[in-house]
């Protein structure tokens, strides 16, 4: 599939010649306010282009100003999933789709990327990580494949999202180092480590050192997250 944009640090994205020029947004004339497009994502993008052209609030938004809304809508999607509320999930996924469409359209306006280039990245990544489905490769663990990609770049922790909550960050670090062979053989080793760290927390509390307590509690939390991972439990849902 042809890629719409391929840019690197040496090519200013705002000057990329690969991004498709979009036609001026127009208001739907069908009386039902249904925006044009061959698929739902295309219609969402058409809707946002129109909002950006006609609404003062929408037109002044930036990728950074929309971050709080993106985070809030993501949390609301998670809440709907956990509650098992299908009606709420439908609404919240729509809100999340709107936020994703905003990010694409704003970057599109700047000549940085478009929906085709975003999908191109997704497709390329999924093909590379499923060699057993696309080609003659054998099945490999997801994290092992990703670790190979990272080691070719800047290291096993390269690209770890800065905005992750502490428990998820610890979980992802452990997944990544496990993919290169640094791991307990089973959950028993992780369980013993939790016991060890708990004893060290008790010792630090008895010594009355706030700094030591802080450090040991951190070690304990990290060990508990590792135990959760090795027992197929995510710490944020425990």
TrEMBL record:
Entries under SUPFAM superfamilies matching the protein: all-alpha NTP pyrophosphatases (SSF101386)
GO molecular function (one): nucleoside triphosphate diphosphatase activity
InterPro entries recorded: MazG-like_dom, NTP-PPase_MazG-like_C, NTP-PPase_MazG-like_N, NTP_PyrPHydrolase_MazG
Domain NTP pyrophosphohydrolase MazG-like stretches: 61-134, 191-231
Chain segments carrying region Disordered: 1-39
GO BP, sorted A to Z: dATP catabolic process; dGTP catabolic process; dTTP catabolic process; dUTP catabolic process; TTP catabolic process; UTP catabolic process
UniProt-listed PANTHER family: NUCLEOSIDE TRIPHOSPHATE PYROPHOSPHOHYDROLASE
Protein name per UniProt: NTP pyrophosphohydrolase MazG-like domain-containing protein
Organism: marine metagenome
